[in-house]
Amino acid sequence: MADQGQVLAPEASGYEILALLDYEAENKEDLLTSLSRLVIERGMAKESFEQAILQRESEYPTGLPFEHISIAIPHTYPEHVLRPGMVAVRLKKPVTFTLMASEDTPVEVRYVFMLLINNSEKQLFMLQSLMEMCQLDDPIKALDSAQSQEDIISVLMPYINKLTGGETK
Amino acid sequence: MKKIVCACAAGAATSATVATKVNKMLADRGIDAKCIHIPSYDIQYHVNNCAVFISLFPGDKRKFPCPVINGLPFVTGVGMDAAFQQLLTALGEK
User: Fold this and answer.
1) Which of A69, A121, A124 to mutate to test the interface with B (most CBs of B within 10 A)?
2) Contact across the interface for B78 and A67, Cβ inside 8 Å
3) Neighbours of A152 (CB within 10 A)
4) What is the ipTM of this complex?
């Protein structure tokens, strides 16, 4: 696990980002379980988060194929979340998720942004900003060439700050 | 004003992203319609009085009395112009 460490982003208005670089997982259940354990151990989510996110992903899949990148944005209901944040994961090998709004269309994703949403409007802007980022070429290239967890976070921070910086519409 | 309803599981994240984008596109064209976002468990209260339903999840076997459009293009931007055209057609706009 030495090369799978995580870094806590500088506090961005109370929003925490953990970045995992070249993380390995057998499948999405394996991935969601280990990411859940991580946020539960850090006190960011309740014990119930693990089951909740697994169930939610099977009912409401979150695989999203953008033009240049395919991602998944697993998340679950606010009642399982203690502190808002995100776990940004660059996977070593793609993991198969299911396409959002589909029954069983597979999407091979290389990046997973697990969202800890606790009902704030700001986090909605965060998600919108993240979706915008995924439609751009440069930040994706920067994520691909990131050498460290800090690199990943520095790519994401402008988008997080855009959100938490008080943007209204 | 015509009502468009977009639903996702909690009605908070993905559907809100879609509603924001759709509302901006409608406003830019001066179309008198508004997209609201709701949690999937509230669908029953909205299906009978909306013009178009934008879906973000599978497996919902309810029969919608209005046209249903896949919301995915409004999230990823891939195929969004075609999806918006589909929405306009469903609204009876050119």
Assistant:
1) A124
2) yes
3) 24
4) 0.80
